[in-house]
Design brief:
Blueprint: E1 2-4, E2 7-12, E3 22-27, E4 32-37, E5 45-54, E6 57-64, E7 72-76
Antiparallel strand pairs: 1-2, 2-3, 3-4, 5-6, 6-7
Length: 78
């Protein structure tokens, strides 16, 4: 998990709409939100490792999906 602007962000390796993982946020008040649900093929599947924050954009990796099916680097502006 990573803290950015008062919220915590993380990934799950499973779950979401197709079971291929999610990016989520949790506020300090306990409000949870799924920001992205992986599984459409080109957007990747099964997020790995942690997220990093670069000037307000979150970056991470997946182990599957993408153009060649072997994972990708994704960016998400929460």
């Amino acid at each position: 998990m990573i803290a950015v602007n008062g919220a915590l962000y993380g990934t799950t390796n499973s779950g979401g709409l197709s079971g291929d993982g999610t990016v989520f946020s949790i506020t300090t008040a306990g409000t949870e939100e799924v920001l992205h649900s992986f599984g459409s093929g080109t957007d990747g599947a099964y997020p790995e490792a942690g997220l990093i924050d670069v000037k307000g954009t979150l970056y991470g990796t997946t182990s599957h999906g993408g153009a060649n099916g072997t994972g990708l680097v994704f960016a998400l502006a929460p």
